[in-house]
Amino acid sequence: MENVYCSILSKGRVYQFLALVFSLQKMSKEDFDLFALCIQDETYNLLEKLNIKNLHVVHEKELGEEVLALKTERKIHEYCWTLKPIFLEHLMMKHHSASRLTYLDCDLYFWNDPSIIFKNQPDCSVLLSPEEKYNPSWSPNFMHYMQKITGVYNSGYISFKKDEFGLSCLQWWKKKCIERCEIVPSEGFFGDQKYLDQMPKLFSNVCDITTPGVNIGIWNDLKFQFHEDDGAVYVNKDRLIFYHFCGLRIVNKNKIELIFNQKSVPFIFEYYQQKLQEAIDLAEKIDPPFNGYASEEDLKRYW
Question: Which of 43, 62, 158, 192 could tie 81 with a disulfide, CB 3.0–4.6 Å?
Answer without folding.
Answer: 192
